[in-house]
Amino acid sequence: MEALKQRVKELLALAQVKAVLGYTKGTGDRRRPLFIRAAGQVDQLVLDEACTQNLAAYATKREVKQLGKVAVISLPSTQRALLQLMAERQLRDGEVVVLAVDGSEIKEITSASALEEHLARKVTHLDSEDKATLERLAAMSREERWGFWRKELSRCMKCYACRNSCPMCYCEQCTMDCNRPQWVPVASHAFGNLEYHMVRTMHLAGRCVECGECGRACPVGIPVHLLTYCTEESVHEQFGQCAGRTAKLDYALATFKADDQESFIR
Ligand code: SF4
Ligand code: SF4
């Protein structure tokens, strides 16, 4: 931790970055994002198992971009998101310094190709609760799965914490917020909730970096991250594409091959 704090101070002192995104103490045992712009803030840095938020969600915000080059203290899921954001041209190659934390080791990554190489060795880990839910879902019939998600999503109160915490939901104006015309009902009710989640899941198909942040952010405990996880896995199986592994734009739903199957067209 001391080595990390020292490096953060150096990056700021040498003006190599304008700010460093990390974590600090939040309410209770929680952690919250910290935007370090001066050496005096460095002692507020915290890095432990409670630091789970995907900080890549801030890297594309207008207020952060206006600062100039930033460094991001990051876990593998944040690194995957940063690489996917580069692939989608939301971040320029070299715009962000990635401070990759792996146990006591801190690696400084400054280019998309180096980040790609670093991530080639990483795998996604689901926790035991997620694995159990996925196994339960896999054992269900299609009708039972539909019933499971209808019931879960009926509890949604449309707070949009899932969307706002997601690094890949970066549109400045979301369709959900449009009221002229209003595509999706604002009120929280079963049909509108389904519409919101179906639209969001499809927008993230092949783009979700499986960080789980949307599920953790949900105040009523709906496992929305498993919806996007399953869609991501399905895109991987069908098209061999994996979000957050390459800086090359490789978006399955925006490309086609002449020999793609068309059996779904009736
Ligand atoms: S797990 Fe959720 S928050 Fe993370 S990238 Fe996927 S949709 Fe976004
Ligand atoms: S965070 Fe939960 S309650 Fe809020 S919009 Fe998302 S699913 Fe609904």
Describe this structure in words.
This protein is α/β, with parallel strands linked by helices and about 270 residues long. It has two domains: about 120 residues, no CATH class; about 130 residues, no CATH class. About 40% of the residues lie in helices and about 10% in strands. It contains eleven helices and five strands, in the order αββααβαββααααααα. The N and C termini lie far apart (about 60 Å). The mean pLDDT is about 90. The chain binds iron/sulfur cluster (SF4) (2 copies).
Structure characteristics:
single chain; alpha/beta; 11 helices; 5 strands; globular; binds iron/sulfur cluster
Quick rundown:
With 266 residues, the chain is of the alpha/beta class. Helices cover 39% and strands 11% of the residues.
